[in-house]
Write a structure and sequence with these properties.
Distance between the termini: 40 Å
CATH class: Alpha Beta
Number of helices: 10
Shape: globular
Helix content: 40-55%
Strand content: 5-15%
Strand order of the largest sheet: 3-2-1-4-5-6-7
Largest sheet: 7 strands, parallel
CATH superfamily: NAD(P)-binding Rossmann-like Domain
CATH architecture: 3-Layer(aba) Sandwich
Bound molecules: NADP nicotinamide-adenine-dinucleotide phosphate
Order of helices and strands: EHEHEHEHEHHEHHEHH
Length: about 260
């Protein structure tokens, strides 16, 4: 999608990144800022960190709390008002909660479902029509391996990420022939403030920690080189996801035995 121009005010392609104030979203902003021509619209909540990323990458900061149902409409209006259009949407904002399901506070259930699922669906709803109208666009959603196989003590988070995967699959049918593509990136464990924020370290799985830059590189490839519907990181995680899909009981026994 390197050219990316359509009608609008920005000369180069316009990318809106949610969750750009930290971790993976910030790394995606840095990756695309390294290539001249991109107009970056950076969403986040924390003003100080968001402004730092904006200053470093030359992007424009758009602040909003995605737990607020009205935020998707506001972000879309601000983005299109600022740059005239959005050619690429990377939905990287997300929040976790880990612990026994019987202990999760109702407010945390609402937050995880609102930020990780509802806000993404609403934002895509707001951004997609102008992409379809121009006959080009890329949407990249941040899923998780947790959504592909389910993870104990992360039932709500896993459910939200699984729903995001089904949303992307379903929407892909509607997008066929429109010039707009949708991809889902499913990382394992990434070394970001995500775990500190949720208050519990990552589960000990033997998975090698990814860097946010590795995830940003995968997003770069999805946008620039070749559309892929699903991108597992590391790539071998596709195998357990496939086993889970084809033989869930076998998967569960293996997971219980080997963690
Ligand atoms: N880290 C991992 O191991 C891992 C693995 C698989 C998938 N993921 C997914 O990757 C995505 C990025 O996570 P990360 O690791 O980069 O985490 P992170 O460093 O904690 O960043 C999360 C981002 O989401 C934003 N955010 C959270 N709650 C928000 C809210 N209510 N309103 C607006 N923005 C909000 C944060 O904004 P502020 O900082 O401004 O509050 C921040 O920019 C998430 O969707 C996550 O589920 C992460």
């Amino acid at each position: 999608m390197p050219e990316g121009q359509g009608q609008g005010t920005a000369p180069g392609p316009v990318m809106l990144i949610t969750g750009a104030s930290s971790g993976i979203g910030a790394a995606v902003a840095t990756r695309f800022a390294a290539v001249p021509g991109w107009r970056l619209l950076l969403h986040g909540r924390d003003a100080e960190r968001l402004d730092q990323v904006a200053a470093r990458t030359g992007g424009t900061a758009l602040r909003a709390d995605l737990a607020d149902p009205a935020s998707a409409g506001r972000i879309a209006a601000d983005a299109i008002g600022t740059a005239g259009r959005v050619d690429v949407l990377v939905a990287a904002a997300g929040v976790g909660w880990a612990g026994p399901f019987t202990a999760i506070p109702p407010s945390a259930i609402d937050e995880v479902l609102a930020v990780d699922l509802a806000s993404v669906v609403h934002l895509v709803r707001q951004i997609l029509p102008q992409m379809v109208e121009r006959g080009r666009g890329r949407i990249v959603l941040l899923g998780s391996i947790a959504g592909a196989v389910g993870v104990g003590d992360e039932a709500v988070y896993s459910a939200a990420k699984a729903a995001l995967g089904t949303f992307a699959d379903s929407l892909a049918y509607e997008l066929r022939g429109t010039g707009v593509t949708i991809s889902l990136v499913l990382p394992g464990i990434v070394d970001t403030p995500f775990f500190e924020r949720r208050g519990t370290p990552p589960r000990r799985t033997g998975l090698k920690l990814l860097t946010p830059e590795q995830v940003a590189e995968a997003v770069w490839r999805a946008v620039m080189l070749r559309h892929r519907a699903e991108i597992f990181l590391p790539q071998w995680l596709r195998l357990p996801a496939r086993i889970h899909g084809a033989a869930p009981l076998v998967f569960r026994r293996l997971a219980e035995r080997f963690g």
